[in-house]
Amino acid sequence: xxxIMHRLHRDNHPVERIGRLRAAVLGxxxxxxxxxxxAVRVAAAAKNAVSSPGSPRPNSPS
Length: 62
What we know:
This protein is mainly α.
């Protein structure tokens, strides 16, 4: 079997395609979950941030 035929034969196995699909779905799911989680944590950290001495408070007039 030539290298091209071997590659074509190998790419036609459903198990490999399912593995790739599974990796894509789980990767997308991970991104969908972790991106909003990070945004919520950053927003919570910004809300609870403590200003350093000498700097004006965010909500006070200068």
